[in-house]
Specification:
The protein is an alpha+beta fold and 298 residues long. It has two domains: 32 residues, no CATH class; 256 residues, Deoxyribonuclease I, Chain A (4-Layer Sandwich), CATH 3.60.10.10. The chain is built from five helices and 17 strands. The strands form six sheets. A six-stranded mixed β-sheet has the order 8-11-12-13-15-14. Helix 1 packs across helix 2. It is globular, with a radius of gyration of 22 Å.
């Protein structure tokens, strides 16, 4: 129990505690439930995906908060044989459901600075559904990479037209941020995350068309695919929702790219593609999104 002002209980030796607070005028405080790690197969399979990808810089989507991310890093990743990350960072975004975006990096990939865009607005109001944090990260070779982590507006809840408009506003703002960073002299920039739309549709054209120089890892000549063009659910072309977009100089550093799909339950019976043996049913899946990865010589 967190007590800020007043007293809740009176304890007298030999008797049961007595509640002495009689309303809000007597007490300011609240109870907090004690948190512990959920022992669920799906959570462990999420850690297995992270262990298999073994990225030095890992962008995470739909995370409750930094405390949860830290517990996951400290407890669950090592439990499945993975290596803990040295840095775990997340900024609370604009979604009150606790589905924020964050980043985890190895010890030798230090987060030098963070810029949040939760308050960015345009003529129609607040732009980002979560945030578009900029993480400036140093690499062991002395380079600097800027990573913009995103989770655009979903296709659910509002009308299709309203959702499309929101995503296009988000894509347009990310494009502005990206262009400004290029003009400031940054060469290695990545825009990563769930953009909740397919490449050819209008909402993403500020990032994928309209003279943009960003390169999608899935279109790079060093990307090794698995025959499924999408990243969500069954991997159909209409389910290409997730992206690693790179500035030209960053794209020139690509050694290889790919997709880790073993954490996803594909098809009604889970037979569309191989998955971890620990995934017995759809509810055991790490996610319904596969993990994109890229190896960079930085």
């Amino acid at each position: 129990m967190n007590l800020i002002r007043g007293k809740f209980l009176k304890k007298t030796q030999g008797t049961l505690p007595e509640i002495v607070a009689n309303g809000r005028d007597d007490l300011i405080g609240w109870f907090e439930l004690k948190r512990e790690t959920i022992k669920e197969t799906a959570i462990e399979n999420t850690a297995r995906v992270i262990h298999e990808v073994n990225a030095d810089v890992f962008c995470v989507i739909e995370v409750e908060n930094r405390i949860a991310a830290n517990r996951f890093n400290d407890v669950v990743i090592p439990k499945v044989g993975g290596q803990k990350y040295g840095h775990v960072m997340l900024i609370d975004g604009n979604d009150d459901r606790g589905i924020d975006v964050g980043i985890m990096t190895r010890h030798s990939f230090d987060i030098q600075s963070i810029v949040s865009h939760v308050d960015d607005t345009d003529a129609k109001g607040q732009i980002f559904s979560r945030d578009c944090p900029e993480y400036k990260i140093s690499t062991p070779l002395g380079n600097t990479i800027l990573v913009l982590v995103n989770h655009f507006k979903s296709k659910g809840f509002c009308s299709a037209a309203a959702n499309d408009d929101k995503r296009k506003r988000q894509a347009s703002k990310v494009r502005v941020i990206y262009d400004e960073l290029l003009n400031q002299g940054f060469e290695f920039i990545a825009v990563a995350g769930d953009l909740n739309d397919t490449p050819a549709r209008d909402p993403l054209q500020p990032l994928l068309g309209n003279g943009s120089t960003l390169v999608d890892i899935m279109t790079h000549d060093k990307f090794v695919g698995d025959g499924h063009p999408g990243t969500f659910a069954n991997g159909n072309a209409s389910q290409k929702l997730d992206y690693i977009l790179m500035s030209p100089k960053l794209a020139s550093k690509v050694q290889k790219g790919g997709i880790e799909r073993r954490g996803v339950w594909g098809g009604v019976k889970g037979t569309f593609f191989p998955h971890f043996p620990e995934i017995k049913t759809a509810k055991d899946a790490a996610s319904d999104h596969a993990a994109l990865w890229v190896d960079l010589n930085l």
